[in-house]
Automatic annotation (TrEMBL):
Bilayer-crossing regions: 7-26
One Pfam family recorded for the sequence: Glyco_transf_34
Keywords: Glycosyltransferase, Membrane, Transferase, Transmembrane, Transmembrane helix
Designated name of the protein: Alpha-1,2-galactosyltransferase gmh3
InterPro entries named among the record's database cross-references: Glyco_trans_34 (IPR008630), Nucleotide-diphossugar_trans (IPR029044)
Species whose genome carries this gene: Schizosaccharomyces japonicus (strain yFS275 / FY16936) (Fission yeast)
Top-rank lineage group of the source organism: Eukaryota
Length: 322
């Protein structure tokens, strides 16, 4: 064998070895293991989540140019099939269809957690469901929580372009915002940064919006990382619920932000219409064509859920060819 041929052969073998190492060391999206430091026994409480259904499993796309990559985003719904007023069972399948269509369009995961066997009111089941989703998708970058009584209306809009890429985040986050709603704002001087550096943007772990009453947890985004896992873990602590610190999950979030500036510093606000438009009369919150979604918050007050759900669902179906 001449020298040149040997060198060539060696090079070939070396490149084969490195290419295959690279290939095999990529995690397969369907085989991710839960974060190791979560001790299953410790979280087997009333927070334990049993029925998880993957309604859309994304394709693993390591070469996706977007950041975060499409398969690193999980859309999450946890419900007992009803909305907060006990109605809405008839919309359940339509809600699922709407989200599957959107998730497929953009290659996102769509996960459903059935909370009907959990011994707590569904709004308090959001946080355990988020924790369970973090365990199931430890490689995910973001989880989008969206209530059942909402319809995604703009199929073309990707979450990265709209909100989650660094560029979109920088454009969207509200500066100099009091962490609390207008009534409470005087009690604290905490405000969001007047400018977001790259490091600040990377730190933002919870993106939420406020309606005219304050925080609304119908639509929000949580980054998947150890700090946000701890954040949500604290948020899920049943002691707050049992001792009636807050009446629901969103007012508890307000409480935590008010009393724990360190936690507040991970929260970013965006204009309501970006992630949580309503069927309402005020411009700042009224759904208009092109918005990402419409959320029927409080529609049961005037008993108009069925009518407006039908109206917007039909409009969406027509536009999406569902
Ligand atoms: C949730 O689970 C319960 C029983 O565990 C079942 O009766 C119900 O149909 C499930 N609901 C949905 C929406 O999957």
């Amino acid at each position: 064998m001449n020298h040149r041929f040997k060198t060539l052969l060696l090079l070939l073998i070396a490149s084969f070895v490195s290419v295959s190492f690279f290939y095999w060391s990529y995690p397969s999206w369907s085989n991710l293991v839960p974060i190791p430091f979560v001790n299953g026994d410790l979280i087997q409480s009333e927070n334990a989540v049993s029925g998880m259904t993957t309604f859309n499993a994304p394709k693993y796309r390591p070469l996706d140019y977007a950041t975060p990559k499409s398969h690193e985003i999980v859309i999450l719904l946890a419900s007992d099939g009803h909305t907060s007023n006990g109605n809405g069972a008839s919309f359940f399948q339509e809600c699922i269809d709407n989200r599957i269509a959107y998730a497929k369009e953009h290659n996102y995961a769509f996960e459903f957690v059935n909370v009907s066997s959990m011994p707590i009111p569904p709004v308090w089941a959001k946080m355990p469901a988020i924790l369970a989703t973090m365990d199931k998708y430890p490689q995910a970058k973001w989880i989008w929580w969206l209530d059942q009584d909402a319809i995604i209306m703009n199929k073309k809009l990707s979450l990265q372009d709209h909100l989650l890429s660094k560029k979109a985040l920088r454009r969207s986050l509200l500066r100099n915002q009091h962490y609390l709603n207008n009534q409470d704002a005087t009690e604290t001087h905490l405000v969001t940064p007047s400018e977001y550096s790259d490091a600040d943007l990377d730190k933002v772990g919870l993106i939420i919006s406020r309606d005219l009453n304050g925080l609304n947890a119908g639509s929000f985004f949580v980054r998947v990382n150890p700090i946000m896992r701890m954040f949500v873990d604290v948020w899920s602590d049943k002691a707050y619920r049992e001792n009636k610190v807050s009446e629901n999950e969103q007012s508890l979030l307000g409480y935590l932000m008010k009393n724990h500036p360190e936690m507040a510093s991970y929260v970013g606000f965006v204009p309501q219409k970006m992630i949580n438009s309503y069927d309402a009369s005020e411009d700042v919150q009224r759904y208009t064509q092109g918005d990402l979604l419409i959320h029927f918050a409080g529609c049961w007050v005037e008993n108009r859920c069925e009518r407006i759900w039908r109206q917007y669902y039909d409009e969406m179906k027509l536009n999406w060819n569902l």
